[in-house]
User: Fold this.
Amino acid sequence: MVKMNLLQAINNALDIAMAENDRVICFGEDVGSFGGVFRATSHLQERYGRERCFNTPLVEQGIIGFANGLAAQGSVPVAEIQFADYIFPAFDQIVNESAKFRYRSGNLFNVGGLTIRTPYGGGIAGGLYHSQSPEAYFAHTPGLKIVVPRNPHQAKGLLLAAIRDPNPVIFFEPKRIYRASVGLVPEEDYQLPLGVAEVVREGSDITLLAWGAQMEMVEKAAEMAEHQGVSCELIDLRTIAPWDVETVAASVKKTGRLLITHEAPLTGGFAGEIAATIQQHCFLHLESPIARVTGLDTPYPLAHEKEYLPDHLKVFEALMASVHF
Amino acid sequence: MSTFNPEQVVHRPEFIRGDELSIPTLCLVQQDGTPYDGAELPVLEQAKALRIYQAMVRTRVLDERMLAAQRQGRLSFYMQSTGEEATTVGFAAALEDDDMIMAQYREQGALVYRGFSLDEFMNQLFSNELDYGKGRQMPIHYGSAKLHYMTISSPLATQIPQATGYAYGQKLAGYKRCTVAVFGEGAASEGDFHAALNMAAVLKVPVIFLCRNNGYAISTPSSEQFAADGIAPRALGYRMHAIRVDGNDLLAVYGAMMEARKLAVERNEPVLVETMSYRLAAHSSSDDPSGYRSKKEEAKWREKDPLSRFRNWLVAQQWWSLEQDEKLFADEREQVLRTLKEAEHRPVCRLDELITDVYDEPTPQLKQQLEALKAHIRKYPDAYPKTAGRLDHG
Assistant:
């Protein structure tokens, strides 16, 4: 085990994947010798050459279009979109092409080798265009897998699984904790399963569900609740699509309550999908309405970022309200 | 790298003018089949020339008959390539069989040339259980892994940057192959076109961008599509090879594509080929060109029919006769009608195929949704006649 931050864990996973399979190719804006604006691809060009790790022109639709073609050819592209806020020029290539390649061709062709890495989320004073969490747009599209790690151990194991998964995967990296999240990570190759949620802590009064950077808020809120004698069960969803209904439903049947939190706006956010599904599965077990703690239905602000964010205090208030419903 | 060149400085504002650039068009054979004076014809042996012509005839006949079948209500949609057969068959004939073709939607000629059978066409057109696409896409969205022909996708121009990526993969794997992206002049307005050319030039990729400039994007004439002298000059801005070709002249298309392939494969460089032609038919079976262009204009282009031009050349070589021609057309019509009848009565594929290929394996959610749907169909079998009787045994 080695101490790594989340970025180093990602870099380590890319290094392992590229060493193991020479068809793995990393590219994107500033990804080459500079190593990416966050340094996630540091030293990869040095080790694997300019043909396998390179800068692209500034054109997101081109990056993903190119990646789709590479993947259809049998290569294993790991494309970086520099900020998740800038994934939208590539939206058509992702939702109409990557997601549907296998289905529309009757499995004659597929882009299963494709992985798209992109830093998402707020808390970095990034304002409207460096803070968004666009996972729900993609969760609405069948054919994509969407993965969000919460710490270095997960980042390495989930990214290796994403690269090797035979489906296109969007890997959203919580940039607020890129360097802040530090932990022990096995040096060797390992994978964590996609589509499987992790019960981080067991509890009996309420289930708190989150993913990525938001897990930190949930953990803090759960500690506050513990002092009030409330026992929280914490679940990290890890994969947004396809998501692990079974684990979440089993937990809610046990605790009788569910709180979901994400940074993205409330309306149309993925918490709504989870709430609808869980009330269907667990209606007779629920002791209170399913609670959602999310960003506001505004663009992501700059000066009022702290107010906007669903922090541990908001989570704490909502969970206590659920418990005392 | 572009740099400021101190030897090329001026001291008053002089503008480079786009309208001063004019690109010539390669024309080799006249309509009566006689080569132009000084025309350098590509080497094309008899057997291959006849295979090309037969593919052009089959494409023409297929288009005529299937449009008629659409008008009779036998299939929902069709797109003809009438007038562009020299381009779509000619480019494919210049390629090696395992070069990848990533077409737009009007390139059935290339598939015919590569040997996609009439049955295979019909199965897709009628979305029956033998359709490789499992009944998921509209008619004319063909694909064949065996023939290295990427399944057609409706969104315009998306295949162009994909071709750049595909060709990059071929280069990295060390294959002496190229990829050809085919698209219309309308698609060249999309961002994907510019992304693809720029990336291909920067990354030195063996890809050929083949623009079929056929005058119209549905109803929008090319004069409302771009202000420039066609599409070919755009390549120069990306520092890329470009050539403009008479798209109704089979030998010109074939010759230009042979040279383009050589540049792409031997030098790992992208090439842009613009073929000047005309979409004689409607955009699709849902379109009516009388609303936006004159019969006179169409008649003018009908006189430049690529089939008759190439046939005249073949007859002049004494490789073909009008008697043979008549028989070929009659045989093709008979075969098209026979395969059409066989395909249109085949059932659609199993309902289970509704949820396969979304992911490599159906998710638990998808399996549940399918079971719920089956239960519903069992309850109301009369409302779902295509599938109600075949739920269990497939």
User: Anything to note?
Assistant: The CA atoms of residues 90 and 254 of chain B lie 5 Å apart. The mean pLDDT of chain B is 96. Chain B has two domains: 25-34+42-344, 351-393. Residues 46-71 of chain B form the longest helix (26 residues).
